[in-house]
Amino acid sequence: MSSAAARKEARTAWLFLAPAFVHLICFALLPIAVAFGISFFRWKLYRPNPEFVGFGNYFSALSDPTFGNAMWNSARFALVSVPAGMIVAIGVAILLAGKIRGSAIYRTLYYLPSISSGVALAMIWIYVFLPETGLINTASKLFGIPDTDFLGKKEWAMWALCFMSVWTGLGPKMLLYLAGILGVPPSLYEAAMLDGATGWQAFRSITLPMLVPTSLFVLVTSTIGSLQVFTPVYMMTKGGPEGSTEVVGYHLYNEAWIQFNTGLASAKSFLLLLVIVVISVFQFRLMKSGMEGAREG
Amino acid sequence: MRRSILLCSIIGLLTGCAGPSAKPTLRISTWGQAGDDSDYDRLVESIYEDFEKVAAREGKQIDVRVEKMPAEYVPKMVLAHIAGVTPDVVTLDASSSALFVNNGMLKDLSPYLRQEPEFLEQFFPNTLQTAKRGDKVFAIPTDFTPMVVMLNKRHFEEAGIALPKHGWTWDDFLRISKSLTVRDKSKRRYGFLLTTWMPGWVMWLWNGGGEVLDEANLKATGTLDSPQNIATLAFLKSLVTEHKVAPALSQIQASGVDLFAAGQASMQVTGHWALVGFPKERKADNPNAPTLDDISVMELPIRPGRTGPSRTVFYAAGTGISSACKDPDLAWQYIRYWASQANQTRYNSSGIAISARKDVAEARLRGPLGRLEREFQRIGPLAEPPIGSRVEGYESVENAGREAMESVLSGSRTPEEALKIAAARIDREFAKEPRK
């Protein structure tokens, strides 16, 4: 290709990329940069004259027990919902990978929550968890299980949110695992069957190792998503009861839009970002070594 | 022919693209629902529309644009203020008005009021306190309601007990609650319905001799967790756990209904707005539900041995002119129209609250709900402004209070522990001063 043609191609490429770049700069990078700047100021959003405090907001955030509680709640949410979501997604993907009638319909049905409004889903789940008249309590009464106020009891509320997130986040995970399972060469299963392997042995020794790259990708993206959870908490528990479901996303919202501590909320956001980056780097390293292990295996 | 069609099209396009009408626009913000077509919505819409006609009669062609914000009203208004696009007229909730009044988001109305010195005399004096700072007035009240004990008289008759008398104490309240409670499972009824929502129980602290914040409104420690308040919370807890005259949180949740409106609770603390939900006639399909005739209201009881009258809070709405308003004269004209006797008589017909105008409120005494209006209006003028009308960020106090009550009623914390934690949390929120 001549240099003139290459330049023309590059120009065309930039032209196509430009809208996405402009959008990214205006609505992501620039606000992030401004928020980073704001994090060094003490600033009530509605008051003029923000005061420069250096890393003061970061020190305040680290010594704030409510922020610590929110970080702990986010960790609890991630530690339960991410592995549970992955296990359920693998199970559903395996079922759908088999030759069952109407699998396309099932795939659509399982994916549907992922493209539905988070607010609408939360409203539905409020009714599912309602004491006495809710779906779960009505069903459990048939088995003589006593009534439980899932969203009103601090022992239950976080579990209820995790349970809901497994269902609402199933679609994309299930699809990734399905692609991973369908990508396993059938010859491997044929060879295993000739060697007399059982279905469980084939799953343990072929399917699971082949799904390591998919699992690590799902792990990274799900962890990031679960640390940013906001909508179900805002809609269903408002961080209660007794702060037991106040996750970082909801805590930041309160700090920024109820208390209007803009500088402090920005600093807390960047601390969350730091945590996410550290976890992601660790998980990416795990992914790299896992993939190498899978290749060697 | 083709040429003339083309010409007509161009003229049509040009006239169509001539831009917005030159009429000035008056933007009004409110937290009402976005066109839910309820009776209330239609009433308010007609009032807005009529202002255009009123202005037209005076030779001013204007457009009134109402901007309804059904949720997150305060954050949206703060953002609008920062962007310099706040609507001209701002509807205010007294409970969060400190933020608007203290931070230059509203224009001082006193220059207009100086021209009409008698204007403010038409309002209940306590309602004016919410937006007054010294000689400056930042909003004109629309309506208000004191928080009262609402009673189901029919339950009193069935229990064979008399209605409480003025100056009743917590001992009287407990005795009455016990008499009203029906423990038979098929006819289960509670004497009292307690809420964890702090605006619904803060006045119990006052009547127990306590306060929420110190005198400077800067600290809760030493005040919210005072022995008086600990005793008050212990008393409220005992209603649920010891005396079982009020339902537990899980029982309230499990019922899925408003227990008082369903006739399953005999007393609750609430405001005038609750009256809107009661039918005039008993309904055959819901005979236990109280009608308006069954309802009576009374001030809150006081702790035995405490001297002084019963204290309560009022919650109120009002209107002010935003500091971004470019035509404050027009906005003031609207506020005068909105607050006029004729208009407030129309608005107050919704029955949601007591009109802040004395003449309109007095006229309601002669209406079909005169008895209830009289009971409310006996308490209303003595009620105190909400703390949020003086203290910015009071939402954090209410959140901490709700959590404290939740933890006490669920049994996870003692009243002392819960109040100490809440007070410390409030202090931290108030003193969020990043270290340099």
Tag the structure with descriptive keywords.
A: 297 residues, mainly alpha, MetI-like fold, B: 436 residues, alpha+beta, D-Maltodextrin-Binding Protein, domain 2, 17 helices, 40% helix, 12% strand
Main sheet properties of chain B: 6 strands, mixed
* Structural class computed from helices and strand pairing of chain A: mainly alpha
Note the run of SSEs of chain B as H and E. HEHEHEHHHEEEEHHHHHEEEHHEHHHH
Oligomer: heterodimer
- Could you estimate the helical fraction of the residues of chain A in percent? over 70%
Uncertain spans of chain A: none
CATH architecture of the largest domain in chain B: 3-Layer(aba) Sandwich
Annotated CATH topology of chain A: MetI-like fold
Radius of gyration of chain B from CA coordinates: 25 Å
Shape of chain B: globular
3D architecture notes:
The complex is a heterodimer of chains A (297) and B (436). By secondary structure, chain A is mainly α. Chain A has a single domain, classed as Orthogonal Bundle (MetI-like fold). Chain A is built from 14 helices and two strands. A two-stranded antiparallel sheet of chain A has the order 1-2. In chain A, strand 1 (41-42) and strand 2 form a beta hairpin. Chain A is globular and about 75 Å long. Chain B has 436 residues and is α+β, with helices and mostly antiparallel strands. Chain B folds into two domains: 19-144 and 314-386, D-Maltodextrin-Binding Protein, domain 2 (3-Layer(aba) Sandwich); 148-312 and 393-430, D-Maltodextrin-Binding Protein, domain 2, CATH 3.40.190. Chain B has 17 helices and eleven strands. In chain B, the strands form three sheets. In chain B, strands 2-1-3-10-6-11 form a six-stranded mixed β-sheet. The interface between A and B is medium-sized, with 34 and 32 residues.
Can you summarize this structure?
Chain A is mainly alpha-helical and 297 residues long. Chain A has 14 helices and two strands.
